[in-house]
Design goal:
Its main location: membrane. The protein has 203 residues and is mostly helical. The protein has six helices and two strands; from the N terminus they run ααααββαα. Strand 1 and strand 2 form a beta hairpin. The longest helix is centred in the N-terminal third of the chain and has 46 residues.
Length: 203
């Protein structure tokens, strides 16, 4: 009985010091990130740049919350307060989930804005039968590289003068008009990325 008690005490002691050290490092990182956020926010105010107040408030809440959780974890480990450690574990789990969700939403927002921006650039090239030779040359290169034709309605965007860069070499993925041209529009290839488009053609 005494031997098992000694082992339990030894295990608690061996875990206590690494836990305190890890939380001390985490506390320092949280403080450093909080300081950077304050400096960044101050610079934004001085330069007059507009940033959503919700985003700034969320950053402060997350960083201050993580800092307080680290303090709570160190206090609970040093004083042996079980309720502190329970709050620490629950808080860190909630903070981790919040950061993951926030990052995913931010990535989705950036991706959607990028798609809209790319679509606007493509629409600015229309009509393809217009006098802008630079746009036509650029699209010829895109069609040869991505193996597609046209932008919005495929080969129809070129009217009666379908260029040689639209010539299709993949049976089953072509359309006869009467020449054989690529079925996929280039806007789909660009927005869905080159690899995905090429995989679609090989299926």
């Amino acid at each position: 009985m005494q031997k098992s008690s000694v082992v339990v005490v030894a295990d608690k002691t061996s875990l206590k010091r690494p836990f305190i050290f890890a939380n001390a490092v985490h506390m320092a990182l949280c403080f450093f990130m909080l300081r950077l956020t304050v400096i960044w926010h101050r610079d934004l105010i001085q330069t007059g740049k507009m940033v959503p107040s919700i985003s700034v408030a969320m950053m402060y809440v997350i960083e201050v919350g993580c800092l307080l959780l680290s303090v709570l974890g160190v206090f609970g480990a040093c004083k042996g307060k079980r309720w502190c450690l329970i709050l620490y574990a629950a808080g860190m789990a909630a903070a981790s989930q919040t950061i993951i969700i926030r990052t995913a939403l931010s990535y989705q927002d950036v991706y959607e804005k990028r798609v809209v921006r790319e679509e606007s650039k493509l629409l600015a090239m229309m009509p393809l039968t217009g006098p802008n030779k630079a746009n036509r040359t650029l699209l010829h290169n895109i069609q040869e590289e991505l193996e597609c034709c046209g932008l919005i309605e495929g080969y129809k965007d070129w009217g009666a003068s379908i260029p040689a860069s639209c010539n299709c070499h993949y049976p089953g993925k072509c359309v006869s008009i009467p020449n054989i041209a690529y079925f996929h529009q280039c806007n789909q290839c660009i927005l869905q990325q080159n690899l995905k488009c090429r995989n679609n053609k090989k299926k």
